[in-house]
Every structure is written in structure tokens, then in C-alpha cells.
Amino acid sequence: MRLVLFERPGQPALPGAITERGVVSIADVAPLAHTPQATMEALIEHFDGLRPALERKVREGEARPLDQVRLRPPLPRPGKILACIANYWEHGAVDARPLNMFLKNPDAVIGPGDTIVLPEHTEPWIFMHEAELALVIKGPAKNVAAKDWQRAVFGYTGMIDVSARGEGRRTWKTGSWLGKSFDTFAPIGPCIATLDEIPNPNDVHVQFWVDGQLRHNYNTDDMEHPVPTLVEFATKIMTLNSGDVVACGTNHEGLGPLQDGETVDFEIHGIGRMRLGVRDPLKRTWDKGIYMGSDSTNPEAVRRNRPTSAGG
User: Fold this and answer.
1) Could you give the residue ranges of the DSSP H alpha helices within the chain?
2) What is the phi/psi pair of residue 54, to 5°?
3) So what's the pLDDT on residue 307?
4) For the chain, what are the domain ranges?
5) Looking at the whole model, is its pTM more than 0.85?
6) What is the pLDDT of residues 85-121, one digit of tens each?
7) C-alpha closest to that of 146 among 225, 244, 45
8) What is 81-310's CATH number?
């Protein structure tokens, strides 16, 4: 099932499901709460018991075409966003780097159809896209072994880890996480695909376009540390709760700048596709194109960098 939050003109966001017929409201089945985020968290926690009624509603309920509703981020204010640092084989490496993560600002979340707004800072930064598979947690999850990872994962969504790069990222204030936490720097969506929708999270195709130019084009089988390892690592550090998000890192090939007036498209196969705009109040410009060029810009060649010695 692919779960969404959607709006119709003049109405609050409601939970729904994307079907071949369009979006079906599940508001009369889902446990509505005081905020859209709380509603999605309750839906995650009670999903197993609600599933028969939800499936019947999705099958029989009235569907509205996607162009008649506005999709919102399926998790508009997660309690936590944990994001991997790198986590993809690259640059001819033969040994995996140590797994590491950072916390990203939950208030940075936006969703389909929204606009990424670059901050009005004059540090020597360039603002880049990092298109990533993200895990949606079912909690509480603490000290979950890698072999039991599925009990802590409700499903999957996509996240663009918008990032400030350059000299300013290393020196401004106290750390690089600040350059990833500006408002609008965490687009999430377009839906939450439940666990059963993705047979193997380490075999998923990720693509990202800027004004029609393919930038990211990679498979998640190229992670240095696969999804079960991420779950074990994160839950050893902290308790993860329902509706928390763990972004799995990106393949840095194909990285490029985001700048004023651009339109970006982001698709994770099996989850869905969403489009956003980019606005820069300062109208800065950088050289268009690929920051770290590779065959990942060729739609016929999804480059895989995993060394033979690493298996897989």
C-alpha cells in the first residue's frame, strides 16, 4: 500500500492511499489525531490491525485523480530525521568507510509541489541535491539486531538531502549538519510505500532530474552498509519512534547545483515520483552540469562501484 497525506481546496490534510484509479481517502478508517504527523504515526502503529479495513476501503472507495488533489509530505514533521553520511561505494574504494549519521532538522520538511528555497547567506557555498531512499520507522525500536531489521521498518519513502557544500560548510559555525538543515532542505515523498511494496530495499532504482537533465541514476545495491546494518547501528544509538526517518545516503556521482528557477523531478521506483521548484532570493548562479561526472548521467548505464571483494 502507498500511503499519502493529501489536501483538497479549503480542506485540511487527510490520509489516503494511491491506487491505479487515483487517491482514495482512508480518513474514515485511519485513527485521526490532532496533527497530520500524529495521524500518520497512529496509522503506522495500528496498521496491522487496520489493514483489512484499509484494503477494503482502497479497493471500494471513491478515487480522486491525482491532478485534483495536492499531495503533502507523508511525514510533515518527523520526530527525528537521521541521515547517513555518504554510504555508497565510490572513487575506486576497496574498503567500506565507517558508518556515520547526522541529525537533520525535522522542520526542514516540504513535499510534492513545494519549493526548495536557498538561504540568504553569503558564505562561499554551493547548494546541491542528494536523492536518497529513506526508511520509515515503526517504533519504539531500540537495539534491533540486523537480522530483525524488518520489525523496526514500516516502509519507505524518498528524501532529497539538500546540502550546502564548499568552504563555508566546513567553517561556518560548528559543523556540516548546519548546512543541511535550512528550512525546505528535506523534501520527503511522495508517499510511504509499506514494507511489502519493496521486496529488497537494497535493490531499488533512484533517479533525479534537474530541468530534464538526469543527474542521479543509481541502484541502492551499491550501499557500503545495507539497510539491515543501518537499522542496527541507529537503534544502538537511540530509540527510534514511529514516524521517524532514516535516510540511507546517496551515490555522489551525478551531484550538481540547485539554483533559482529550476524544476527538479525525483523518482524512486516502487515508491513514486514528485516534482519541486527551486528559488534563490539572491539569484546566485553556478556552472550547470554534473559536479562529480560519471556514467550515472546515462539512463542506459547505472554505474555500480561496489568492489568485487565486497561481494553482492
Assistant:
1) 36-60, 167-171, 227-237
2) -65, -45
3) 76
4) 2-72, 81-310
5) yes
6) 989 987 777 788 999 999 999 999 999 999 999 999 8
7) 225
8) 3.90.850.10
